[in-house]
Amino acid sequence: MATLPLTATARTSTSAAALPLIGRIAIAAIFVLSGVSKLAAPAATIGYIQSVGLPLPQVGFAIALIVELLGGVALILGYRTRLVAAVLAVFSIATALAFHNALGDQNQFIHFFKNIAIAGGLLNVIALGGGAWSLDARR
């Protein structure tokens, strides 16, 4: 069976539908990778949480692991996209304030504003939703 070539409008529509998915994957990648690295070295992560003086480092570790892994995967899939993006945005700001607040240190300064930039991208996800290629679009 022969297929007709895509029209310019159909190509544009497909490209536009793909962009939110690509954006969700790009933003979620940092959360999933960070969660996997925490899972691979729990003692180091708990030690780092203790080093900044936060209480209950084991609980903090568990929360971070759940938020990063489950939140990252949910964001990629576009499942409850706006809610997940809001949780990840709050998490990004909280971690910036708790772990990257030594703004006199250039490395911490960069990490602080990286987290703020991620939160900004997530605000766009909250505003625009998951897009056509998301589980939310199937509901």
From TrEMBL:
Principal place of residence: membrane
TM region positions: 28-49, 56-77, 83-103, 115-135
Pfam families given in the database record: DoxX
Keywords: Cell membrane, Membrane, Transmembrane, Transmembrane helix
InterPro entries reported in the protein's UniProt record: DoxX, DoxX-like_oxidoreductase
Topology of this chain in the membrane: Multi-pass membrane protein
Location of this chain's protein in the cell: Cell membrane
Protein family according to the UniProt entry: Belongs to the DoxX family.
PANTHER family according to UniProt: INNER MEMBRANE PROTEIN YPHA-RELATED (PTHR33452:SF1), OXIDOREDUCTASE CATD-RELATED (PTHR33452)
Name the UniProt record assigns to this protein: DoxX family protein
UniProt organism field: Sphingomonas echinoides
